[in-house]
Amino acid sequence: MLITIQNNFHGSSTKLNIKVDGKVSLSQERRAKKAICGVGGCQCGGIYGPHAEVEGMPGAYFAERFDRSGRKVGASIIPVT
After folding, report:
1. Could you read off the pLDDT of 12-36 as tens digits, one per residue?
2. pLDDT value for 66
3. Rounded to an integer, what distance in angstroms lies between the CA atom of residue 25 and that of residue 8?
4. Residue closest to 32 by CA, chosen among 80, 79, 73, 74
5. Which of 3, 45, 56, 60 sits between 20 and 30 A of 74, alpha carbons compared?
6. Three-state secondary structure string covering the chain
7. Which residues contact residue 32 at a Cβ distance below 8 angstroms, ignoring those fewer than 6 apart?
């Protein structure tokens, strides 16, 4: 499923091809964060901040995913129902 993530603070956007379950790999997350906000120390929050929106999914947000050992493995898009 192809989605567009927009950052209203910077006026930037990027597209991601994600799994149907909404999971985003660690490499996809890194690429999206860099495309949305590549500014070190910026307070916009990148894909996790209040300025990030998933086009066509009002209110949806990103949540970090971790494995059982606590290692970060990516992110998930959480739709608001």
Report:
1. 999 998 888 888 999 998 899 899 9
2. 95
3. 23
4. 74
5. 56
6. CEEEEEECCCCEEEEEECCCCCEEEHHHHHHHHHHHCCCCCCCCCHHHCCCEEECCCCCCEEEEEECCCCCEEEEEEECCC
7. 5, 14, 16, 24, 46, 47
